[in-house]
Amino acid sequence: MPTGVHLRDVRQQLFHAAERVLLREGPNALTSRAVTAEADVAKGVLHRHFADFDAFLAELVLDRIARLTDQAAILQASAGTRTVTANLVDALTELFDPVSVALTSLVFFRDELRTRLRRPGTDGLPFLAEAREMLSAYLTAERAQGRIAADADANSLALSLIGASHLLFAGRQRHTLPDPAELEKLIQTVIADVVQRRLL
Q1: CATH number of the domain bearing residue 26
Q2: pLDDT reading at 4 higher than 50
Q3: More confident site: 124 or 169
Q4: Is 100 within a domain?
Q5: Residue 173: CB atoms within 10 Å
C-alpha cells in the first residue's frame, strides 16, 4: 500500500476514534491513550504520525474546519432561496453538531492548542472564527439580493448568531439538541431588524 494512502487512513482512523471518545465521554477524557485504545492501535502509532498530542488535536480541529468549506458553499448557494431564517437554522444545526461543540470546548480550554490553530492576523476562537466568516459571507449575499437591509452589518450579525447559537447548543445535556423552534426564534430575534427594514 502506498505510504501516502496508508498515512491518510491512519490519520482518519485516529480522528474518528477521537470523535467517538469526545461524544461518549467529553473533552476531558480525550487523551492520547484514550484515542489509541479507541482506534485499537498501538500507543506509539499516534506519535509516529504527529509530533505530540497537541499537534494531533490541532490536525483534528483543522480537519473539522476544512469541512466548513463545503458547508459554506452550500450555504452561499442557498442565498435567495427559502427564507433567511430557514437557511440559518439548517446551517447552524449542522455547524454545531455534538463533535464540533466538544471540539470548541477543547480549543477554549487548551491554550497551546488555541495558539497552534490561530491564523496570523485573525481574532476569535479557531473554528468559531471560520464559522463566523461563513455566516458573514452568506448574509452579505442575502444583503446583495435585498433580502436584508442594505446597511446590515453582516459581520456583527454573524458574530451574534455564532455566539448565541453556540450557547444554545453547548448549554444542553450531552447527546441532546435544542428544539428547532427554539433555534428559529433565536435567529429571528437576531435578524428581525434587518429583515423588517429591507421593506422600508
Answers
A1: 1.10.10
A2: no
A3: 169
A4: yes
A5: 5
Identify the pLDDT of residue 199: 67
Domain that holds residue 143: 61-199
100: which residues sit within 8 A by CB, 6+ positions away? 64, 127
pLDDT digits (tens, 9 = 90+) for 41-94: 998 999 899 999 999 999 999 999 999 999 999 999 999 999 999 999 999 999
pLDDT in tens, 178-187: 889 999 999 9
Question: Whole-angstrom Cα distance, residue 25 to residue 160?
Answer: 29
Does the predicted TM-score (pTM) go above 0.85? Answer: yes
Q: Do 161 and 89 form a contact (C-beta atoms < 8 A)?
A: no
Q: Are residues 87 and 147 in the same domain?
A: yes
A 10 A CB-CB count for 70 gives 9
Q: 194 and 133: one domain?
A: yes
User: Are the C-beta atoms of 107 and 117 separated by less than 8 Å?
Assistant: yes
Amino acid at 147: R
Structurally, the chain folds into a number of domains equal to 2
| Angle between helices 84-95 and 154-170 in degrees, nearest 10 | 50
Same domain as 159, residue 75: yes
Domain identity same for 175 and 84: yes
Start-to-end Cα distance in the chain: 64
- Cα gap 134→1, rounded to integer Å: 37
Cα→Cα distances 76→6, 65, 68, 70, 83, Å? 35, 17, 12, 10, 13
